[in-house]
Amino acid sequence: MRNTPIHKQILSLLEKNLYPLSADELIYQVSANKTTVYRQLETMVKHGIVNKVSFTDRKLRYEPSNREHHHHLICEQCGTIRNIPLNETLLLSQLKQVPDFQITRHSLEFFGVCNHCKIL
């Protein structure tokens, strides 16, 4: 994979943000056209540099794959996303006991209202 200026820009933006960004959010901040940004993101996903994240709104978002495993808190009013680490040892050990099914990945999101929106 070539380490182009666009590649560096996208990766830098993803690493600076504490939450996953959509392609549209990246396009707004990167000096490249839409097609180039989408291609770069897909290449980064293919090479394991970036992970795709999708919530119930089905909008794809991206975050660096080198972050510690975590899940997300999503405000249903303003759309704010926060990372939350969880100890999943017990849950995963129980799921491994399910016959005839191999878990290859998982995603867990929590929805609610952030403190800012509760005040409003």
What does this structure look like?
A hairpin with a 5-residue loop joins β4 and β5. The radius of gyration is 16 Å and the shape is globular. The chain has 120 residues and is an alpha+beta fold. The chain is built from five helices and six strands; from the N terminus they run αβααββββαβα. α2 packs across α3 (34-46). The chain has helices at residues 5-16, 23-29, 34-46, 89-95, 115-119; strands spanning 21-22, 50-54, 60-64, 71-75, 81-84, 109-112. The longest helix is centred in the middle third of the chain and has 13 residues, at 34-46. The protein has two domains: 5-64, Arc Repressor Mutant, subunit A (Orthogonal Bundle), CATH 1.10.10; 71-119, 2-Layer Sandwich (Dna Ligase, domain 1). Helices cover 37% and strands 21% of the residues.
